[in-house]
Design brief:
The complex is a heterodimer of chains A (250) and B (443). Chain A is α/β, with parallel strands linked by helices and 250 residues long. Chain A is built from eight helices and twelve strands. Chains A and B meet through α2, β7, α3 and β8 of A and α7 and α8 of B. Bound molecules: adenosine-5'-triphosphate (ATP) and magnesium ion. Magnesium ion binds next to α1 of chain A.
Chain lengths: 250, 443
């Protein structure tokens, strides 16, 4: 599904990613952990196509094609989804309108018919129920004035509506209480399937109790310094990142 | 004493010809005095504070003849354009003014409503001339020119306590002729004690496309009177006009407990200039003003606002938003002036600008002058670009860059557009279409 090879990237001339190698197969869930500032969000942003990052070496293949050559909207249309670490507030753009526009942009790209407002409302309400979300959030502006937890759930809601093939979740669990965490995990699990893959950035092993990963990677100093099974997360929780080779490389 | 030495102007004032009713009696005397004031002042130039950022050079070099009354076919063509723009809202009392000359479409028959061509109304009822208040010298030379030489226009009066069931529409159109023309329309809107009305003033050019030189100079003036406890909702919508130069003033006076809601939407043009002068002249008078100005490549839009609080307990709120794309230019100059008497005034003025391209530019200058000591006043201005984070967020969800830009730009304008009265919902559609065009970036 996703194959990253020797990926190097800079921001404002500053080297952040220093040779990432990572392969995520269809049906798999991978977790990425690592210290603050190690480049996790940078990796997510590069994969989603954010401007301002320069890829200086390496490549990323998505379903066998050059992901980095695509505009962000084309990546989304082909099934790549990024749940933002810091979801953006967009005053004046209605949340429901936005999500329907997004869904229809994807459907149009796939040659499918657009969903009308009534069918969409039905669809989104069922997804909101699953996430135990307040439906009043639909008529508000995108993320505007949402609490931290509401923003994170709104990201997962979008993911459920857009049904991506590759979901990249950047700290979607941060700032959630235990109930909210369980609900968000429910949303992530709802989308697991043999033809989908998930890349989860997290600082907390507790998420991995609910969304059990196939692989866990440690990103430090712009590189993956260690990979393992889910037991690696448990080990990290005990020992911290300090023990790991390569963390001093930054 | 001002000296009455005539300055040369691009206007062929010797050919001025207005209906006789306008040049008779006291009105005639006032007109002659105003015209004299214009002749001695001449066209405003870069040394005039109020014209620092807006140059009239493109017309200073031309020669414009006072526009004659257009033929019936021209009126009919304007009517079609207006009907197209308004859609279902093109009904009720309405009137078309072309190049300063009026033709009634439907004078309406609502109780308390007097509505029709200005010159006709004055010929029939000379006492109505009292509604044409003097134009203050501070309003500038072009207001004086209109005061001295307006040809015709619209007169709308709503009698005491009357509430109009339908909005009244006044179309102020320009139409090019064989030679460059000067159009001088005057609109008078007077609501008497306790009256209520919604009025839509639509500005359009019959041939809006760009021409090498301006073919029509529109120098218009609308005088608004909101009587005690009366309530007027006024929507001024200016459609794109790259054909001519459009200078218009709206001078309003609001009496005790009266309320004026004004929305001014300008879609852009070669040179569009608005002088809004509001006087809150009674205790508890209120004015809420929303403005949206758009300017694209080769366009220049300038709004000057003067808000004067003369009496206690007045409230004014202004929100002006500008969207400038391409190599467009916009100017906002807002003055709030609170007189010594006007204690307990609450005045607010906000100007926000969105630049869609590196070549776009805005000059904004909001000012407060307060002579009373117990007031609540605030003002502020911003100039910014589209939020890159929001753009990426939308694109990461699959929206095209252009769609995302248009969506964010419309969201920026929504605060003004959403406040339009229901009868002017069509203005929102025009704004949407224009913003979509403005936000498109060549790939
Ligand atoms: N625009 C930028 N200009 C300069 N440095 C940047 C920019 N964006 C990110 N960085 C730097 O890149 C490094 C990696 O940032 P990144 O956000 O990828 O870290 P992270 O692993 O996601 O951290 P966290 O766990 O705190 O979310 C940090 O040192 C950060 O300060
Ligand atoms: Mg991060």
């Amino acid at each position: 599904m996703l194959k990253i090879e020797n990926l190097h990237a800079t921001v404002d001339g500053k080297q952040i990613l220093r040779g990432i190698d990572l392969e995520v197969g269809a049906g798999e869930v991978h977790a990425i952990m690592g210290p603050n500032g190690s480049g996790k969000s940078t990796l997510a942003a590069v994969l989603a196509g954010r401007e301002g990052y320069e890829v200086t070496a390496g490549r990323a293949l998505y379903q066998g094609q050059d992901l980095l050559a695509l505009a962000p909207e084309d990546r989304a249309r082909q099934g790549v989804f990024l749940a933002f670490q810091y979801p953006v507030e967009i005053p004046g753009v209605g949340n429901a309108y936005f999500m329907r526009a997004a869904l229809n942009a994807l459907r149009k790209a796939r040659g499918e018919e657009e969903v009308d407002a009534i069918d969409f409302l039905e669809l989104i309400k069922s997804k909101m129920q699953l996430l135990e979300m307040n439906q009043a959030l639909l008529s508000r502006s995108v993320n505007e004035g949402f609490s931290g937890g509401e923003k994170k759930r709104n990201e997962v809601l979008q993911m459920l509506v857009l049904e991506p093939k590759l979901a990249i979740l950047d700290e979607t669990d941060s700032g959630l209480d235990i109930d909210a965490l369980r609900i968000v995990a429910r949303g992530v699990n709802a989308l697991r399937g043999p033809d989908r893959a998930t890349l989860m950035v997290t600082h907390y092993q507790r998420l991995l109790d609910y969304v059990v990963p196939d692989r866990v990677h440690v990103l430090a100093g712009g590189k993956i310094v260690r990979s393992g099974g889910r037991e690696l997360a448990l080990e990290l929780e005990k020992t911290g990142y300090g023990q790991l080779a390569g963390t001093g490389a930054r | 004493m001002t000296q009455a030495t005539a300055t040369s102007t691009p206007f062929d004032l010797d050919r001025l010809a207005a209906p006789a009713a306008l040049d008779a009696g006291a009105l005639g005397e006032r007109r002659r005095a105003a015209l004299e004031a214009f002749r001695s002042a001449g066209l405003p130039g870069p040394r005039d504070e109020a014209w620092r950022f807006t140059s009239l050079a493109p017309i200073a070099r031309g020669s414009f003849a006072p526009a004659p009354r257009p033929d019936a076919a021209t009126f009919a063509a304007v009517e079609r354009r207006a009907a197209e723009a308004l859609g279902a809202a093109w009904r009720g009392p309405r009137l078309v003014v072309v190049n300063g000359w009026a033709a009634a479409v439907d004078a309406g028959d609502a109780d308390g409503l007097t509505f029709g061509g200005l010159a006709d109304a004055l010929a029939r009822e000379p006492a109505l001339a009292d509604l044409l208040r003097d134009v203050a010298p501070e309003a500038g030379a072009l207001a004086a020119l209109n005061a001295g030489a307006f040809t015709d226009g619209a007169l709308l009066r709503v009698g005491p306590g009357a509430a109009l069931p339908d909005p009244v529409v006044v179309v102020l159109a320009t139409a090019a002729g064989d030679e460059p023309l000067l159009a001088l329309p005057r609109v008078v809107v007077a609501l008497e004690r306790g009256a209520q009305a919604t009025v839509i003033e639509l500005h359009l050019a019959l041939e809006p496309g760009a021409t090498p030189a301006p073919r029509v100079v529109h120098d218009g003036l609308t005088q608004v009177h909101v009587g005690q406890g009366a309530r007027l909702d006024l929507v001024v919508a200016q459609l794109q006009d790259d054909d001519g130069v459009r200078v218009h003033g709206h001078h309003a006076r609001v009496e005790r407990d009266g309320g004026l809601g004004l929305t001014l939407v300008q879609l852009g043009g070669r040179l569009v200039r608005e002088d809004l002068r509001l006087l809150l002249d009674g205790e508890g008078a209120e004015a809420r003003v929303g403005g949206l100005y758009l300017a694209g490549d080769g366009q220049h839009v300038d709004d000057h606002v003067w808000m004067e609080h003369a009496r206690p307990h007045g409230t004014s709120a202004q929100l002006f938003k500008g969207v400038v794309g391409g190599a467009g230019r916009a100017v906002f100059d807002g003055q709030v002036h609170v007189r010594e008497d006007a204690q307990k005034t609450s005045a607010q003025q906000t100007n926000r600008n969105l630049l869609l391209s590196p070549q776009a530019a805005v000059n904004t200058n909001p000012r407060l002058t307060i002579h009373a000591d117990d007031v609540k006043c605030s003002h502020g201005a911003t100039i910014g670009q589209l939020d890159e984070d929001a753009l990426f967020y939308l694109r990461a969800r699959g929206l095209d860059r252009d769609v995302a830009r248009a969506l964010l730009t419309r969201a920026f304008a929504a605060e003004v557009v959403d406040a339009l009265p229901a009868a002017a919902a069509w203005v929102g559609d025009l704004v949407k279409a224009r913003l979509t065009a403005l936000t498109e970036v060549p790939a």
